[in-house]
Amino acid sequence: MLQKPRGTRDFLPDEMARRRAAEAKMREAVARWGYGEVCTPTFEDVELFTIRSGENIKKEMYTFEDKGNRQMTLRPEVTASVARMYVNEGRSLPKPLRWFYVADCFRYERPQKGRYRQFWQFGVELIGADSASADAEVVMVADDLLRSVGLEYDLKVGFLAPMKHLLSGIEPGLQRQVMGLLDKRDFEGLAGCLQTCGQDELEDALTGLVSCRAPEEAFEICGEIPEKTRIEEIFSILDGSETEYTLNFGIVRGLDYYTGMVFEGFAPNLGAESQVVGGGNYRLAKLFGGDDAASCGFAIGFDRVMVSLGETPMPRPPLVAVLSQPGLLAVAFRTARALRAAGVTAELNLLDRGIGAQLSHAAKTADFACIIGQRESEAGTVTLKDLHTGEQREMSLSEAVAGVKAVGDR
């Protein structure tokens, strides 16, 4: 028996209903901020991703050669594709551009809870606004989207400038090593690393920076930096808007990619793979042949959001099973069509069953049975049976519609 590929999933109707409902709430939330949906190709030229991340990223991607001998890949993320689209299609549009996307991505990774080889992202990109207001807006949009689905999570916001300032005298390879140790809060490893490279004096400053809970504390550690005013403005806006967050100057989302403000969100009930959102400032357009457009965005790990929310029951409209005696199938189809036209969900018996067997089957999935026998067919009526209470009554079709609608969602 053939199985689905490792790291992928099948979604049955109940799960898809939960996913679509959460997605709809996020779409409504982001639309209120004035963001419009964009869509990029599922596959792109490999160079779109290697030009920024290097050839090593290929081992994490699904790459292939097309019939024109071109090296292509299934997209491992969407930000690069949106930046490429901006260069191709959006440079002449009025700025700033407020775009969002919902897309599946593909990475060849070891599957585990909350991490799959095919996964979905809900992302936002704000292009062409280089300001503290833009930074703060993107953080608040992310928070609004996650709150809209009822997710309980912890938001952490930082800025890379203080840490970049402290690490400015260290070569890039060692910077990444130091940042990795800070990210893991491995202070013992950090001390050893700094001692080995003769940078012991940075230990107190770096560990102190991670512990800062106000911008002023960070400035006392790193001194005056050009970004001081912008940092103060960002957190002033977030505080004034009553956004719930924790300041964290130890966020290390990549010194070679993010340029300023950075933020992350974590759902405590997810365990090790708890990050549900990440984003910040970046500049990719120039790398892809465009202008040096300031950009700020984020991607929500939609699958992890759904795992965190759990299998909450979804309200649904009542389902009516239209049942009929032999020879009355055409009447049953007309009745079901009339029910649907009136806004009622209706399904028909499609197998050769008697009324009793039809009722038994309907009781497993439906809320009402709309029964059509010879008497009902001749009188132009139906017998509506509530499959939860057992009550039934013969009535007109319009009365049946009203009775079903009066029940509301189940």
TrEMBL record:
<dbReference type="GO" id="GO:0004821">
    <property type="term" value="F:histidine-tRNA ligase activity"/>
</dbReference>
<keyword id="KW-0067">ATP-binding</keyword>
<dbReference type="InterPro" id="IPR033656">
    <property type="entry name" value="HisRS_anticodon"/>
</dbReference>
<dbReference type="InterPro" id="IPR036621">
    <property type="entry name" value="Anticodon-bd_dom_sf"/>
</dbReference>
<feature type="binding site">
    <location>
        <position position="253"/>
    </location>
    <ligand>
        <name>L-histidine</name>
    </ligand>
</feature>
<dbReference type="InterPro" id="IPR004154">
    <property type="entry name" value="Anticodon-bd"/>
</dbReference>
<dbReference type="GO" id="GO:0005737">
    <property type="term" value="C:cytoplasm"/>
</dbReference>
<keyword id="KW-0547">Nucleotide-binding</keyword>
<comment type="similarity">
    <text>Belongs to the class-II aminoacyl-tRNA synthetase family.</text>
</comment>
<feature type="binding site">
    <location>
        <begin position="77"/>
        <end position="79"/>
    </location>
    <ligand>
        <name>L-histidine</name>
    </ligand>
</feature>
<protein>
    <recommendedName>
        <fullName>Histidine--tRNA ligase</fullName>
        <ecNumber>6.1.1.21</ecNumber>
    </recommendedName>
</protein>
<dbReference type="Pfam" id="PF03129">
    <property type="entry name" value="HGTP_anticodon"/>
</dbReference>
<feature type="binding site">
    <location>
        <begin position="257"/>
        <end position="258"/>
    </location>
    <ligand>
        <name>L-histidine</name>
    </ligand>
</feature>
<dbReference type="GO" id="GO:0005524">
    <property type="term" value="F:ATP binding"/>
</dbReference>
<dbReference type="InterPro" id="IPR045864">
    <property type="entry name" value="aa-tRNA-synth_II/BPL/LPL"/>
</dbReference>
<keyword id="KW-0963">Cytoplasm</keyword>
<feature type="domain" description="Aminoacyl-transfer RNA synthetases class-II family profile">
    <location>
        <begin position="6"/>
        <end position="317"/>
    </location>
</feature>
<keyword id="KW-0648">Protein biosynthesis</keyword>
<keyword id="KW-0030">Aminoacyl-tRNA synthetase</keyword>
<dbReference type="InterPro" id="IPR004516">
    <property type="entry name" value="HisRS/HisZ"/>
</dbReference>
<feature type="binding site">
    <location>
        <position position="121"/>
    </location>
    <ligand>
        <name>L-histidine</name>
    </ligand>
</feature>
<dbReference type="InterPro" id="IPR006195">
    <property type="entry name" value="aa-tRNA-synth_II"/>
</dbReference>
<feature type="binding site">
    <location>
        <position position="125"/>
    </location>
    <ligand>
        <name>L-histidine</name>
    </ligand>
</feature>
<dbReference type="Pfam" id="PF13393">
    <property type="entry name" value="tRNA-synt_His"/>
</dbReference>
<keyword id="KW-0436">Ligase</keyword>
<feature type="binding site">
    <location>
        <position position="107"/>
    </location>
    <ligand>
        <name>L-histidine</name>
    </ligand>
</feature>
<dbReference type="InterPro" id="IPR041715">
    <property type="entry name" value="HisRS-like_core"/>
</dbReference>
<dbReference type="GO" id="GO:0006427">
    <property type="term" value="P:histidyl-tRNA aminoacylation"/>
</dbReference>
<dbReference type="InterPro" id="IPR015807">
    <property type="entry name" value="His-tRNA-ligase"/>
</dbReference>
